[in-house]
TrEMBL record:
The keyword Hydrolase applies. GO terms for molecular function: hydrolase activity. Keywords: Hydrolase. It comes from Jiangella alba. Pfam families: Hydrolase. This is Putative hydrolase of the HAD superfamily. InterPro entries: HAD-like_sf, HAD-SF_hydro_IA, HAD_sf, S-2-haloacid_dehalogenase.
């Protein structure tokens, strides 16, 4: 097996606590326009996020349009009358301000970067999020000076699981795929797709809901050390 040269991380729900930040932001925003965020409404918000963000990822809608659709469908769920496009955009900006106010990294993100540095390996981030937002996240959570290049789907023109995203990552680092270990929380996007592109991969299964047969799975980034040999 080729000697490991770099560890590349997914960002959302790997180093950055997207789900926690989004839940807190949604709760604060919804209370300002409707009322408390029930578990059912919070679950619905995340379902809308996944469905419409994936439509953007797959090239079916623009980033702005997927955001409008999320807001518009939520308004239907809470019995609010429909609003025009500027109104949808204004509501998104209000939600995003609440979301951004709660941005934070996972406690084990620092440990992971220390482990990688101690092993003498390079780092990078490959994320499916939009360019400006993902760089902003890395800056706000204090990792901008701790990791190598931050590569986004928007800048690359392709998103995970497209093998071109992983090929662009390897080209950016100037490394053979077999010398890169990819670490992420989404088994399909971050593990299956990475391996199909020739990289090594570790599944970060924080909730214990991943495939039972996955041989390279960790529950926390504290466990990453065992995969850096």
């Amino acid at each position: 097996m080729a000697q490991l040269a770099a560890v590349v991380f997914d960002l959302d729900d790997t180093l950055f606590d997207h789900s926690g930040s989004a839940a807190r932001g949604f709760g604060a925003w919804l209370s300002s326009i409707h009322g408390p965020a029930t578990p059912e409404l919070t679950a619905a918000w995340f379902e809308l996020q996944d469905r419409h963000f994936n439509a953007w990822r797959d090239g079916h809608v623009s980033m702005a349009e997927q955001r409008r659709r999320r807001i518009g469908e939520l308004l239907e769920l809470i019995g609010r009358p429909p609003v025009d496009q500027p109104g949808l955009d204004a509501l998104w900006r209000d939600y995003f301000a609440s979301y951004r106010a709660g941005w934070q990294r996972f406690d084990d993100a620092e440990v992971a970067l220390e482990l990688v540095a101690a092993a003498g390996l390079r780092t990078a981030i490959l994320t499916n999020g939009p360019e400006d937002m993902q760089h902003d996240k890395v800056e706000v959570i204090g990792l901008a000076s701790r990791v190598g290049p931050v590569l986004t789907a928007e800048a690359l023109g392709s998103a995970k699981p497209d093998p071109r995203a992983y090929a662009a990552l390897c080209a950016e680092l100037g490394l053979d795929p077999a010398t890169i270990l990819y670490v992420g929380d989404d088994h399909h996007l971050d593990v299956v797709a990475a391996r199909a592109a020739g990289l090594r991969a570790v599944h970060l299964d924080r909730r214990g809901t991943g495939p039972a047969g996955e041989p390279h799975s960790i529950a926390t980034l504290h466990e990453l050390a065992g995969h850096l040999a």
